Amino acid sequence: MRLSILDQSPISSNQTPYDALQESMKLAQVGEELGYTRYWIAEHHDLPGLACSAPEVMLSYIGANTNRIRIGSGAVLLPHYRPFKVAEQFNMLATLFPNRIDVGLGRAPGGSAEVTNALSENFLQSVQNYPTSVKELIHYLDNRNAKISASPIPENPPVPWLLGTSKKSALLAAANGMPYTFGHFMSDNDGVAIIKEYRNNFEPRKQGQTPEVIVTVSVICAETTEKAEEVALSSLIWSIQTDKWERNHGVPSLEKAKQYTLTQKELESIEKKKQNIIIGNPLEVKLKLHDLRTKYQADEIMINTITYSPEDRKLSYQLIAKEVFNEENKL
């Protein structure tokens, strides 16, 4: 089973943004050592608990401090930008780090309405033009524009992925011959039906190309189920704080999370959120990941983990890799 990492570069309450970005770099290094297929980093704007607003900048740092693991954006929020500039940025990365670069594309704003207005003159119109922008970007990455090139042109171009949670995004990926990433961790939609639509409507962009699917899931793994549940509490409380726009202090410590007063509605919200997270010991997590891969017929599972302690986060990825990869090496 292929496993990968989606990093949102969370800032814990005892960290600076610099600390969080350094931990992101270290996580990519750990992922490479453990055998994860790829490391992607997300784009968010003016969200106090998340450090990365510019994946294209962070990826140059990640690439310079790793050697083999594929690296990419999860995702570049294309409606904010001109496709030509995005193509230049990722062609630069693909030139510096050959055969390692993915450019994941999304259409969410990634921040508040005020931030969206600061980034884009007309975001809603850009969202309406999103299918055209995706097609334009692919033309530049494939170097198929007769008039201009998004130089430098790398020997191995970046691989464009479409990220989404809807039938609309799946069909857009299929129509453009793009691999598709479904955000299971952030969706209540029928992902199985959505991915089936993607596969059934896939139109190859290049000879021999076939549909490819990544499913992204939130996971917290620890040595025991009890420990995993305890570690997960910080992330769950932070999600409640985020929903209430109480995020000035980052992911809370376990002590602060335990002290946080929850209403009955918030307790019910946490139980609902836990249904979309895999929490458990290594064997429990492995079995649930296998079930998820089978359910979606996914080619790869991408794991997003948010904890207060960077050590708990790295340990979660380490325990999963040991349980999954060691078993497969024995076969």
UniProtKB/TrEMBL annotation:
GO MF annotation, one: oxidoreductase activity, acting on paired donors, with incorporation or reduction of molecular oxygen
Q: Which SUPFAM superfamilies match?
A: Bacterial luciferase-like (SSF51679)
- What transmembrane ranges does the database entry give? none
CDD domains, per the entry:
Flavin_utilizing_monoxygenases
Q: Provide a GO CC annotation, any one.
A: cytosol
Where in this chain does the record put each Luciferase-like domain? 1-293
Task: Note one Pfam family from the annotation.
Answer: Bac_luciferase
Give the UniProt family note.
Answer: To bacterial alkanal monooxygenase alpha and beta chains.
Task: Give the NCBIfam families listed for this entry.
Answer: oxido_grp_1
Which PANTHER family is this protein grouped with? LUCIFERASE-LIKE MONOOXYGENASE (PTHR30137:SF19)
Q: What is this protein called?
A: Luciferase-like domain-containing protein
Q: Which organism is it from?
A: Ornithinibacillus halotolerans
